[in-house]
Amino acid sequence: MRASLLQIAIDEGESVDSRRERVAALVRAEAGAADLVVLPELWTIGAFAFEEFGRAAEPLTGPTHEAMARAAADAGVWLHAGSIPERAPDGTLYNTSLVLSPSGERAAAYRKIHRFGFDKGEAVLMGAGRELVTVRLPETVIGVATCYDLRFPELFRGLVDAGAETLVIPAGWPERRRGHWTLLARARAVENQAFVLACGTAGTHAGVPQAGHSIVVGPWGEVLAEAGTGEEVLRVEFDPAQVARTREQFPALKDRVLGIRPPD
Which of 59, 103, 193, 233 is the most buried (most CB within 10 A)? Predict the structure, then answer.
């Protein structure tokens, strides 16, 4: 399976419309090079641009969805379109990820469960999602999480229980905690014996320098590919069947005692 992680740079002088057009062109450029393309968290405005959340919020079928659906269909790829500031019909804001099929149809939407900021920012401006989301691709089942979710291993155990083999994590992770980013990505891969595709951003979000360093990790914790700090397309080819082989060769997941769901 071929994946391309688009580590988008946030330039505060670039309009949202211009960035959508530019990113759509980058997605189309992956035609024939990727089966799955992944974008970062809140790439239209920047994950730390809290004052823009309300002004930039859009419905699920808004302009970002439309632009990315066309790009996915033109490129013929599965597209994890990163996340958008979604305004729900009741007015609540959510940090919502979109997964689009190669025909441009929406396959899933995931509202971020763990909101960052403690008593400010996203934590108070946006609602919390409640549902775990997996999507079955022809080659693998992906489990969807977003940025701060990476710090909560129980979410990923739930995704594995739901059948996930590849964990896809768009983020707007700050540079000052970059060490945590790569450490946690590898930890989630090792403990769940799954591939991790973690796509970050470059540039600066509302004055907060971004970590970059998008990373792809295999089920044994090996780093298969890692980006630098600037805007970059990180391409990697991996074998999803390695997940089943790893879980068979080293069946640690079968020894779980805590948190096991009762039999159906």
Answer: 193
